[in-house]
DNA sequence: ACTGCGATTTGC
DNA sequence: CAAATCGCAGTT
C-alpha cells in the first residue's frame, strides 16, 4: 500500500484526528517492517489549548516542529517513553494529533520481540507502548509521514467513531473537558 | 484507585 | 536549581 498524499493532512485538526482512525501507520527499519491500524487519537490545538505543549504559541526547541507544515512527525519524550504526534494545520499554527493506540497489523513478531507482553491486547494500547513496539524514537522527530520509512497509508473506514474527553491532562483548567479524543467504537486496542 | 519509577524540558 | 510532564506496570 502506498503512503497517503501530503494533501491528506490539509484539513482541520479535528477532521484529521477522525480521518486518521482506520489508517495504517507503517515503520520500515533495519530490523523489519511493522504496521498497525490507528484506533485512537487526540487533537491538540496549541494557541487556545492549555493542555498542548504549544499553548499560547509557546515556541521552543521542542515545539518548533509544530509550527511547521502539516504531515510531519512530532515526537517527544515523556518520562521514559517516546510519544508520536502528527503535525496539523498550517505554517505557524502549532496544532497536532496524538496517536494513542494501534491495532497490530504486520510484523507482530518483531513488535513482541521489542516489547514482550503476555497478551497481544497490551502490545500497542497506549501512546508509549506503540512507539516502543514499532521502534519509533526521537530519531523520527520532524520526519514527513507521507513517505518512507515512517508513513501512513489508507486502511479501513471505521464503522462508528466515538468521541470524549482526553486522557492524562487533569490539571489544565477548562481544556481538560474538551471532547477532542476520538476512537473506533468497540475496538479492543483502545487504551481505556 | 493508588503507588513508584524516571528523564527530558522548561521556567524560576 | 526545582517543578512539571499528553505513561506504564504493578499492587491494593
Describe the SSE topology.
Layout: H1 13-20, E1 24-29, E2 32-45, E3 73-78, E4 81-88, E5 95-106, H2 108-114, H3 127-134, E6 150-153, E7 161-164, E8 181-184
This protein binds a DNA duplex (12 and 12 nucleotides) through strand 3, strand 4 and helix 3.
Distance between the termini: 30 Å
Proportion of beta-strand residues: 25-35%
β-strand number = 8
Order of helices and strands: HEEEEEHHEEE
Mean pLDDT: 94
- CATH-derived architecture: Roll
Helix count, DSSP H or I runs of 4 or more residues:
3
The helical percent reads 10-25%
The CATH class assignment is Alpha Beta
Global Rg: 15 Å
What structural category characterises the helix and strand content? mainly beta
Shape: globular
Query: Looking at CATH, which topology would you report?
Result: 3-methyladenine DNA Glycosylase, Chain A
Spans of at least 5 consecutive residues with low confidence: none
Main sheet makeup: 8 strands, antiparallel
Q: Structurally, how many domains make up the residues?
A: 1
Amino acid at each position: 500500500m502506498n503512503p497517503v498524499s501530503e494533501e491528506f493532512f490539509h484539513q482541520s485538526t479535528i477532521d484529521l484526528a477522525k480521518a486518521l482512525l482506520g489508517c495504517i501507520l507503517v515503520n520500515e527499519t533495519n530490523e523489519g517492517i511493522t504496521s498497525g491500524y490507528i484506533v485512537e487519537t487526540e487533537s491538540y490545538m496549541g494557541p487556545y489549548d492549555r493542555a498542548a505543549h504549544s499553548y499560547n504559541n509557546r515556541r521552543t526547541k521542542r515545539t518548533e516542529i509544530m509550527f511547521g507544515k502539516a504531515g510531519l512527525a512530532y515526537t517527544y519524550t515523556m518520562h521514559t517513553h517516546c510519544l508520536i504526534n502528527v503535525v496539523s494545520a498550517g505554517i505557524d499554527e502549532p496544532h497536532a494529533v496524538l496517536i494513542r493506540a494501534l491495532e497490530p497489523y504486520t510484523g507482530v513478531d518483531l513488535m513482541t520481540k521489542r516489547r514482550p507482553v503476555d497478551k497481544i491486547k497490551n502490545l500497542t494500547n497506549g501512546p508509549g507502548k506503540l512507539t516502543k513496539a514499532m521502534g519509533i524514537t526521537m530519531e523520527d522527530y520532524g520526519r514527513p509521514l507521507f513517505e518512507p520509512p515512517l508513513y501512513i497509508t489508507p486502511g479501513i473506514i471505521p464503522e462508528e467513531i466515538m468521541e470524549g474527553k482526553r486522557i492524562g491532562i487533569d490539571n489544565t483548567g477548562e481544556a481538560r473537558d474538551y471532547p477532542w479524543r476520538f476512537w473506533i467504537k468497540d475496538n479492543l486496542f483502545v487504551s481505556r
